[in-house]
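Hey all, sorry for the wall of text incoming. These are the two entities for the joint prediction.
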Amino acid sequence: MTIDAATVRKVARLARIAQPEETVEQLARELSGIMDWIEQLSEVDTDGVEPMTSAVHVPMPMRDDLVTEGGDPEVVLSNSPKRVGNFFVVPKVVE
Amino acid sequence: MSELTSLTLKAALDGLASKSFSSVEITQAHVEAVEAARALNAYVLETPEKALKMAKASDARRAAGTAGPLEGAPLGIKDLFCTEGVRSTAGSKIIGDFKPTYESTVTSNLWRDGAVMLGKLNMDEFAMGSSNETSAWGPVVNPWRTQGGNAQLTPGGSSGGSASAVAAELCLGATATDTGGSIRQPASFTGTVGIKPTYGRCSRWGIVAFASSLDQAGPMARTVEDTAILLSSMAGHDPKDSTSLPVETPDFASFVGKSVKGLRIGVPKEYRVDGMPAEIDALWEQGIAWLKDAGCEIVEVSLPHTKYALPAYYIVAPAEASSNLARYDGMRYGLRVDGSNLTETYERSRAAGFGAEVKRRIMIGTYVLSAGYYDAYYLKALKVRRRIADDFDQAFEKVDALLTPTAPSAAFQLGDKADDPVAMYLNDIFTVTVNLAGLPGMSVPAGLDASGLPLGLQLIGRALDEGTLFSLGGALEKAANFRAKPQKWW
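and here's what came out:
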């Protein structure tokens, strides 16, 4: 298996997804199945090939660094799970 | 007034222009059809009040002589498009209550041109799926059934709601998106037309991101001409999307009906895959014969890296998705499930909010981007992607467009492939290459299989050459004379 239970736990932690322990083995099998199938890419000769990072061949446009809209906290906060006044409420980050 | 829902978009626009009926009338007819078709689960949100309000405003604009190109036409909108003040969930629980405070550029363009919104269409969660079964709101059901059968079939995915709604006449046309085949495979499964334009043709601004270098919006409708009309409205340069191309949008409908005589059509031999039903092969041969009859020259071409497109896609797309979906952290919007500290709150929110397939893809993406694997997987996949794009470049030195099947099968039963991720991924074997290369691709209904289910053929064009696809699609449509409709059971 390409991906074992320990790797699943590590990747789940990196991805910030809680993964119940009883599901780890099953997920390891599924992900390994996918990665084993992906493994066939190693057959392709890619020596000297430039990686393709974009589907369009135009240079990134530049724009003026100006505020276009803003100043409306109600709009910004309208979907917040928790707020106090004009602030988002989040769990404590610094002790 | 069920006959109003059976009109093509073009016929409806003509009828509205000649005042044979009003936008309120045709919108009301659609609202009733949508309410009567809830068994299909195509709409996740019906907005009848908004629709009738927009229709009234549209009729007023027409009376005032300021009608736009889509004036009064009721459309369905895939739930991946953010619509101002109207719940937009991307098929996910993690933003299950999300009400955007802005409108996507593509839908803004449609409303600018006078269209009316009927509601939001169901889809695979974050557009990750090929059968609509990953939707948090339950799968869409295909209006088509096998002859004499009553099994529930998938409309395909991820734009399954769009496909089902168009096929069942629950809108005149719909918006959709395509990251690996999500417009074209559902079109093939439902006997409808769908086009994924060139990457950069439509702005991605306000469309919930899945894999940003592959995602592209496009229309689905019942005729080639209808998709052309819709795409001309949807497309256009948008400074808010840095990958949006600064090019003029042609009047795509003017290409439909143009002669295709003398065009060179490539038939890629690598698309003859093992285990493909003989009927699909036969339909492909039929399509070749139709284009020959229309005066095209058929050329066999080779796209040698075709078989590596799907595995490369399943690195590139999850990698981008893992990054894009990092924003769902339960802090500023979306679902929050409290934990004992910040990290645990992130982990619990995301575990509760994402479905199994989305989690799988985030995990794959995180894995291939993690330290030690980046070069072996991600960089390798980007190099293979270049090889695939080069294959197309070489083919397009010899031909003007390519003809292939759209999907390796007809619509299958809901539940049939749900347990095998790789078998599900293989649905996109003929469509995904186009996304990797950024090219336009269109699916046109071409016939029925022995059990009475629709099958589509795919046309692939050069970058920004959708015009040729609309001409060829029109020629195929004319030759196929596809008139079949699903028998109403819902």
